[in-house]
């Protein structure tokens, strides 16, 4: 391994690349990682020397706080390569600021911009061969932070590890997604951590989602935990409803994640002349719209799948299959967004940032 | 290191003990660990060879699911040593069954009884020198399980690690505990994971608790997230209120942990002839009881502190200091319970189990 110092980041290069072992034609989402990772530790009240080094397991004490008290947050981003082999990020400022919003809510230190964004840029430059051209292809980026301080006492840790790992992905095809509307289980409390990208929010969803899977549904549409009358998120995504030609989505809140794809789709839809209403959508309203045939589409929105169309929903043991329609807004918006992300279309919004 | 096989558990002994480096007179809770730990991995759908080995850091992949999706649960227990040097556990069956209840809710595999309890027994026998005699002295036991499968996709892991680590503790003295009643933040949702000892539940409390600390309060009394009118837990403990000579505590629910100390205190109080009501206690009722001077005591109950008296509470920016009284139920029950746990009194309930 050769060690060099580049603008304060220590870089330890992997002696050989694993890239030739990877079949980029059949990637399973998030399961293969690139040659290097970025790492920076927080100790004694400050961020330490950042390092880029070969992707490898690392040592943790059995009493590390992340295992016992769950201080762990993450982000999901993607890097794209255009026809000129230039590498692009999509709205990285949004992920950076949300990461620190999550950090504050979980009583973790905020990560400085030069560590997060400069670290990411240099890591992407080193592993740029892992980013493939073409629509749907991307390098999925996973920045995350965990509590590494030791001791089994329920207080915030005084040591943390921030890391960025990279996973090549191709177009995410979720297939036919049927959902069930939550009538009992919930993903977030009022005054809770639903708006943070906190690890614990995801584990909480697995059991109810397994129950839904057994009944033949791929995902759950989460409702507010107090009344189960308001539609909030779909699985791990934000959710949109099209009633007639209006798109509806819930406002972000303490219970609802401020999704980057969500806010991007809102802007994109409005620029396409689509009427978008940001307001609480009631379960009763959805059922009513289904009955009077004004409910045209439901789709999830998130970084991994971009847009994920939902084919029908179950509520109070009744399944409502949406009619198949042509020219869906889901496909229109997904195509528009992917073309901007992959630099196949112009980006009048200034969302894409060159690495 | 010598390797021997004892009733299916592989035992790798530490070459030397760290015990002489430990000052048992000034222990900081949960910060020192004994010579050995118990470990058992879950892979390919089954539990693997259990091992007792020297306490040491272990390797994890950066994409381990525990870091990203928070599948992590734990228990808190204690082992005690009596005057004859016999070692005792307190209601270990309760912790064992609650551990598996947590596992189910977090979509993790249940741990078989012979792995959990037999593993614990053998670990305690090996590290029995770490258990000191005398009231308040104990070996704190931390069984925990984390998701070790790799891949950044929000699905349950297919690999897990179950561990038990041990930390010597002395009497836990919390000092003067003033609390603030939660009016905005919450620890649990209806249909959420508040009843599970899930790591993520604890991290969620740190930020609001830090805010309370800054205002001069040590802990928060959590209320229901939907209305903030019902008193539910105090910090990481269950909570009891004494109005006149009646003890009140909330029923366990999806939002409230089924605490072993809680249920023990209920039985112990009743056996002492104290009237105990298990029902929702309203914030308004507490304020009213304070005003008409029928509110005598508030205390938390948990494994670490056993009983933690609360000296006053703040609600809607008004601080209510409880009058100092003699012969508190908190002290009466704590003494009774610690005497049973440390085998200084008879145990007519059959709660103590010899290792």
Automatic annotation (TrEMBL), chains A, B:
Pfam families: Aminotran_4. Transmembrane segments: none annotated. GO terms for biological process: amino acid biosynthetic process; branched-chain amino acid biosynthetic process. SUPFAM superfamilies: D-aminoacid aminotransferase-like PLP-dependent enzymes (SSF56752). Keywords: Amino-acid biosynthesis, Aminotransferase, Branched-chain amino acid biosynthesis, Pyridoxal phosphate, Transferase. InterPro entries: Aminotrans_IV, Aminotrans_IV_CS, Aminotransferase-like, B_amino_transII, BCAT-like_C, BCAT-like_N. GO terms for molecular function: L-isoleucine-2-oxoglutarate transaminase activity; L-leucine-2-oxoglutarate transaminase activity; L-valine-2-oxoglutarate transaminase activity. The modification N6-(pyridoxal phosphate)lysine is found at residue 197. PROSITE patterns: AA_TRANSFER_CLASS_4. Its cofactor is pyridoxal 5'-phosphate. It catalyses: L-isoleucine + 2-oxoglutarate = (S)-3-methyl-2-oxopentanoate + L-glutamate; L-valine + 2-oxoglutarate = 3-methyl-2-oxobutanoate + L-glutamate; L-leucine + 2-oxoglutarate = 4-methyl-2-oxopentanoate + L-glutamate. Its EC number is 2.6.1.42. PANTHER family: BRANCHED-CHAIN-AMINO-ACID AMINOTRANSFERASE, SUBGROUP IIII AMINOTRANSFERASE. Belongs to the class-IV pyridoxal-phosphate-dependent aminotransferase family. This is Branched-chain-amino-acid aminotransferase.
